Amino acid sequence: MLDRMARVLIVEDEEDIAFPLVRTLEREGYDVEWIDSGTKALEQMRSTFADVVILDLGLPDIDGLEVCQRARKEGFTGAIMIVTARAGELDRVVGLDYGADDYLAKPFGLAELQARVRALLRRTGQAGGEDGGSGRTEIAVDHDARRAFYGDTEVSLTGKEFDVLDILVAHRGKVVSRDRLMAEVWDANWYGSTKTLDVTIGRLRSKLEGAGVSERVVAVRGVGFRLEGPDDA
């Protein structure tokens, strides 16, 4: 079990990809450093231990596969996750053969990346607790991919269930009115019963509970619903 903040090293030469990763992982509670070349990455991995290295293959100086292989030969024991735009099973297999622990193809959602990092920390014994050592037990949503994750587990949701959860997560800890949920999820031209919202909320609660999610969808009588953690009640 870690007595310190888990450390993540991002090796990526494109700023528009690296910056969102840094911000996202820092919000998760990790100590994050960004390096933009393979040479610098190897130097950093020799001098300072990282629990997880997120390694792009298309680096400007040294191919990421070579960085991975050299790091392992030099005794680096942290987890290495390769991310790449290269397609195909061959690259995945080759990457793992070179010493990588996981492989993520671009484009990928930030929620999936977070889940993979937590899984790597648990798998390598570097993190304590069910939340991967980040200190958080919140469900994460990938808005663009329309997927929801709790830890490294994806919670399977219907379209409407995801839309409701997406709004509640965006306003976590605050009440979202029934009218707003109806308007944004079913649109303003919906003429059916608002009971459809209650049915959707009921199914969403059941799925979150079934996945072991500690957060709850709480009804605020006469107003709407709020997503709250176990310590918020």
The number of domains is 2
| Count of alpha and pi helical runs | 8
**In the CATH classification, which architecture of the largest domain applies?**
3-Layer(aba) Sandwich
Contiguous runs where pLDDT drops below 50 for at least 5 residues: 128-136
Main sheet? Answer: 5 strands, parallel
Q: Percent of residues in helical segments? A: 25-40%
InterPro entries: CheY-like_superfamily, OmpR/PhoB-type_DNA-bd, Sig_transdc_resp-reg_C-effctor, Sig_transdc_resp-reg_receiver, WalR-like, WH-like_DNA-bd_sf
GO molecular function: phosphorelay response regulator activity; transcription cis-regulatory region binding
Protein name: Response regulator transcription factor
Domain Response regulatory: 7-121
In a nutshell, what does this entry contain?
It holds the Pfam family Response_reg. This protein is an alpha/beta fold and about 230 residues long.
Report on this model:
With 233 residues, this protein is of the alpha/beta class. It is built from 8 helices and 11 strands. It has helices at residues 15-27, 38-47, 64-73, 89-97, 110-123, 159-170, 178-185, 195-210, and strands at 7-11, 31-35, 52-56, 79-84, 102-105, 140-142, 147-150, 153-155, 176-177, 216-220, 224-228. The chain has a 5-stranded parallel sheet, sandwiched between helices. Strands 6-7-8 form a 3-stranded antiparallel sheet, with helices on both faces. Strand 10 (216-220) and strand 11 (224-228) form a beta hairpin.
